[in-house]
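Lecture notes, continued. The same structure-token format from the folding unit now serves as the input rather than the output. Read the line below as a description of shape only.
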């Protein structure tokens, strides 16, 4: 990071930069840049020995995957090629994400993600449309995954986390929404993917405005049942998703797993230094004081009771970025039919089956959430309105009979 004398817009010197030596050691030892609690090494190759090395070494892996994909395509193996192009797109997206300025390296890596995903769209077994939406004098974009058939179908408006781009979910060969007869629109809102490259600055409240513009466009599509649009908002996206649900009456249901809509103090001050460095770039802040002013206004205080649609919230008992007591407090302010699933002894990126995950797209939470949203689109009432479900690892999940409603392990 720059010294205080060389601070610049989007990359100011932050107090947490003083922890960079320890952060680099954690990256080297764990292969992770955040969420250090689970066992096992993260996805970063062992050649990465500091945060600054991630973009190069993950980018090199992406280039290899792209070469393999092209070779398989040239050999006539379209199915294998699509799988490899998808892997390359995700690797390029991961590599560009850690570059906290829109420089030549950022443009090269993000361009690789878009180039490879264009090949995914070309080779996918169903139609994936890249959609540009005019908004606020610029453009925001998303990938529209269209389920087969001519009749209007429900649509899931997917809000990725702050570490994701729209390419991350769903996987074209394992699209949990399409399996259940639903479209997906995966969004690059302010702070994500194409919006970053266009210079769209993230503010405390512009994400939901951009999303509203996209939803207005999607409602007019003949393929979409305009009465059955649901928000699926993951990780930090849960904050944006809950604000979308609070401000948009066109939303039929909302799901917010890996809840991150509590006070951002925990994310910015107690979690990995990565997050404050990232948000300095996303907000294009010129100083730490300016950045603090933005994230302190990123809140759901006074908005939880404005959500009117059925809502699902999922959180880990020990998620460091969302203390469970804070989640309980905000959940209790809701007036809409809602239920909260608590995953005991889990942190962020929690799993219903507690088997972990090897990639974002195959996380088991996707299947459970898509089932839950489909039931709301079908008009089925919540099974546990107003309740907090304790998803005991020895039990059979949130849909089993005799689920426990306790909030603390000793109750």
């Amino acid at each position: 990071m720059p010294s205080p004398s060389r601070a610049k817009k989007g990359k100011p010197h932050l107090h947490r930069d003083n922890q960079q030596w320890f952060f680099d050691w954690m990256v080297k030892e764990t292969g992770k840049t955040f969420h250090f609690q689970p066992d096992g090494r993260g996805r970063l190759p062992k050649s990465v020995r500091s945060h600054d090395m991630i973009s190069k070494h993950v980018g090199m892996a992406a280039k290899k995957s792209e070469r393999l994909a092209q070779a398989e395509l040239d050999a006539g193996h379209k199915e294998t090629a699509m799988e490899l192009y998808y892997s390359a797109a995700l690797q390029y997206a991961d590599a560009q994400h850690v570059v906290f300025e829109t420089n030549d390296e950022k443009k090269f890596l993000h361009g690789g993600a878009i180039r490879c995903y264009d090949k995914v769209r070309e080779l996918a077994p169903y139609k994936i449309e890249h959609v540009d939406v005019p908004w606020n004098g610029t453009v925001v974009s998303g990938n529209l995954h269209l389920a087969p058939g001519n009749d209007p179908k429900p649509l899931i408006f997917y809000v990725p986390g702050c570490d994701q781009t729209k390419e991350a979910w769903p996987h074209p060969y394992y699209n949990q929404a399409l399996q259940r007869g639903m479209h997906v629109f995966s969004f690059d809102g302010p702070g994500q993917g194409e919006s970053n490259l266009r210079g769209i600055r993230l503010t405390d409240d512009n994400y939901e405005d951009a999303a509203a513009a996209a939803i207005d466009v999607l409602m007019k599509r003949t393929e979409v049942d305009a009465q059955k649009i649901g928000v699926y908002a993951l990780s930090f996206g849960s904050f944006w998703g809950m604000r979308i649900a609070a401000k948009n009456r066109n939303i039929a249901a909302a799901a917010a797993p890996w809840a991150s809509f509590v006070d951002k103090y925990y994310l910015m001050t107690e979690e990995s230094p990565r997050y404050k460095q990232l948000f300095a770039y996303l907000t294009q802040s010129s100083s730490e004081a300016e950045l603090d002013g933005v994230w302190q206004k990123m809140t759901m205080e006074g908005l939880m009771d404005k959500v009117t649609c059925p809502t699902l919230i999922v959180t880990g008992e020990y998620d460091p970025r969302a203390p469970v007591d804070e989640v309980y407090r905000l959940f209790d302010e809701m007036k809409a039919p809602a239920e909260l699933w608590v995953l005991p002894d889990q942190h962020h990126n929690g799993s219903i089956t507690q088997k972990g995950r090897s990639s974002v797209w195959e996380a088991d939470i996707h299947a459970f959430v898509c089932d839950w949203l489909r039931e709301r689109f079908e008009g089925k009432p919540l099974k546990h309105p107003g309740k907090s479900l304790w998803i005991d690892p020895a039990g059979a999940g949130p849909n089993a009979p005799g689920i426990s409603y306790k909030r603390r392990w000793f109750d």
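Point for the exam: The mean pLDDT is 94.
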